[in-house]
Amino acid sequence: MVEKDIKFDKKSNVRSILIILNNLVNFSMKHVKNSFFAFALVSLVLVFSCGTDKDEETETPKDVTIAALTGDWTLNTSESDFANLTETPTATVTVSSAGISITDGTLGDYVSQISYSVSDEGALVPSGATLASSEITLDGDVTVGINDGLDKITVSFTTQAARVSGVGSFKLVFDKAS
User: Fold this and answer.
1) Sequence-ordered strand ranges (E) for the chain
2) Does the global pTM surpass 0.85?
3) What distance in Å separates the CA atoms of residue 178 and residue 86, rounded to the nearest whole number?
């Protein structure tokens, strides 16, 4: 009987060991599954939180310049040169990202439009000037620039023609009023 008890105990011990091992494997698999799920969840949260919000996007230099061009601008007659004009011209100007329109006032008798575009770097790239009279023509290229403070535009061009008034080098300076 003692042998039977020993055999029974051995069988019982082996069975107990197998049950314990089975529980350990199941317990470990649950932890592996839970750990994997937690890792996957944390990874997803990190991936989605790395995106930028539209509010946090930085403006490009081009966007900054285009925004600065909106508003009221005035002709700065003290810093401008008006070729051979004897009287200081006046003008009403409208500034946009496509150019400067000059209306009203005496400057409009000579030039009515300065055209440019805004580069990706935020610089003004000239594309020409529309002269108000067929008696004068452009002599060379038009240059257009905006200062670092984005509140002063300088335009330069030279005209030539048969008539005396309005011929020569123009340097027009426009200051942002608001």
Assistant:
1) 73-75, 81-82, 92-95, 99-103, 111-118, 124-131, 136-138, 143-146, 152-161, 168-176
2) no
3) 30
What is the domain extent for residue 28? 2-51
Please give the tally of structural domains in the chain.
2
| 126-165 confidence digits (pLDDT tens) | 999 998 888 888 888 999 999 999 999 999 998 887 555 6
Amino acid found at 171: K
Contacts (Cβ under 8 Å, ≥6 apart) of 75: 89, 90, 91, 93, 105, 107, 172, 173, 174
Which has the closest alpha carbon to 140: 124, 128, 123, 153?
Answer: 128
With respect to residue 56, please indicate whether it lies within any of the assigned structural domains. no
Q: Which of 102, 109, 87 is nearest to 163 (CA)?
A: 109
